[in-house]
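Quick entry, no commentary yet.
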Amino acid sequence: MLPVFFIIPIAIVLFFVLVAVFQWLWNITMPQVFDLRTITYWQALRILIIAGILFGGSHFPELNFKM
């Protein structure tokens, strides 16, 4: 098992890469299909956060303690 101090930086880097990929996909698709403007990196981050709140729900497992 990998130590936490190794996993957290990797998760942060992967998150920022995900945002950059989302921005790239948006900027090559949406302006052509729907005649929308291109977005910046920070706008892509905000869209992903809003989408996660609206559609993602909680990814934490429920703790079911039985007594």
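second:
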Amino acid sequence: MHARRRFRRQTHVTPKSFLSFLEGYKTLYSEKLANLGELAARMTTGLLKLDEASESVDELSKELVIKEQDLVVANQKADKVRITGVYLLTASTDICLHRFF
């Protein structure tokens, strides 16, 4: 109706123009469908990578717990060695001081 008022003539849809419209619509639909397929594939790949990362984080968290326990044991051993070393150093220093004084 808008075109009729503007150009003051009637417009008709012929079978040829309708078929041309349908062909353009099919082309546009095919392009959009291919684009959506590509986006869906990307999303699927991204979700798979997120799942893999989640599994990796879970495994690393378990390893971290074990390593922290090992670290506590190693720190306790180091503290014992440090205390023993300080005691021996203090004792040897006392012995050396007693010799000179």
